[in-house]
Amino acid sequence: VKVKIPFGNKHLDAIFSVPEKKSTYGVVLTHGAGGDMNFPHLMSLAAYLASHGVLCLRFTCKGLNIVYRTKAFKAVVEYLRLSDDYKLSGVFLAGRSMGSRAAASVIRHLSQEDDDDFIQGLVCLSYLLHRPKLQSKLRDEDLLFIRCPVLFVSGSADEMCEKQLLEGVASKMKAPKKIHWIDKANHGMAVKGRTTDDVMEEINTEVFSWLRENIGLEHK
């Protein structure tokens, strides 16, 4: 279902992947610095989640400014929170690369503003921890403030998220967290000798099983 989400005096293009049965929880998903919501990895994950009963709303927000991307993500979360069509008990915010930084930033901001439990967790695909060869400047400030469960899915050969560095950040985080390493994958999740579909299947099943473990944790 295609929708246009109001954002300032503009609109963000978005698509709902809707499961057959009514979903109580949803995932909001966005892309990295390049590309848009039709990035193949996002389409694959959205279709997988919907086929397993989880509503997924993916959206496009162009722009390389993290503050702008964060505001856009926040507008999408508010849109979903107030939606009459899909009355959800909670959502997980998810993004790829720069999109996951924006998702983390939104969670940090919203947790300071209100303490309802609409946001259930964060999924970071290829989290952008540092620029290539600039390991001294870590983009970890938002992660250290987050309290809800966090899943990282990263390639063990990601040039923008070195394995030891992410494990170091994770050890300092207060949130319940899990890192799933895709062996030998780079930042784009490409692995020599494996097809894209094969890698995506590993990512999709990992994300879904983690969601299932964490859905409604507050209510169990």
UniProtKB/TrEMBL annotation:
Segments forming domain KANL3/Tex30 alpha/beta hydrolase-like: 27-209
Record's superkingdom? Eukaryota
Gene3D superfamilies, per database record: alpha/beta hydrolase
What's the name of the protein? Answer: TEX30 protein
PANTHER family, per this entry? TESTIS DEVELOPMENT PROTEIN PRTD, TESTIS-EXPRESSED PROTEIN 30
Q: Which InterPro entries match?
A: AB_hydrolase_fold, KANL3/Tex30_Abhydrolase, NSL3/Tex30
SUPFAM superfamilies in the record: alpha/beta-Hydrolases
